[in-house]
Design brief:
This protein has 190 residues and is of the alpha+beta class. It is built from 5 helices and 10 strands; from the N terminus they run H-H-H-H-H-E-E-E-E-E-E-E-E-E-E.
Amino acid sequence: MTDLDHLTQSLARNLKRWRQERNFTLDGLAARAGVSRGMLIQIEQARTNPSVGTVVKVADALGVSITTLLDFDQEPQVRLIPAEQAVRLWSTEAGSHSTLLAGAEAPGPLELWSWRLMPGEGSDSDAHPSGTTELVHVTSGVLTLCVEGSDHRVPAGTSASFESNVPHGYRNDGAEPVEMTMAVSVPAPR
């Protein structure tokens, strides 16, 4: 079984578990997440490898982190995630990528990311649930953080925080790679 097969199986098992724990029907979760019922069925039956965007929408609708959807092993109290178990969710041929380093569920989902953006590349995100906050720390290069249409230059050594319940994105308009660490905190479901 390949890593992708393991990921697909974990996602199928965990989506069904969290959907049932939240008492969401397939139709209810589909409407809440903005994805089709058919897509949710395919995910729960491990018949598809959904896009990162779809996984993010489903996680947001369930009020859990992507980490929780991809791996539900909450024990022991201290959980070590070796580098080879970090999940690279997207990458480009030029070398840009984001890697989910760790996540937790208390009091709501909390995720830690490592990002690299190559010159001229970027990544846009839809608005997250109300109350979601993102923290970014740039370690090299100059990040262009776009929040609700406004650009903010974030040079190496600088941190930024913002409420990410609005459209936002990350760009590298410079000539050298941007390296950054990001934490995302999503409020617990009501």
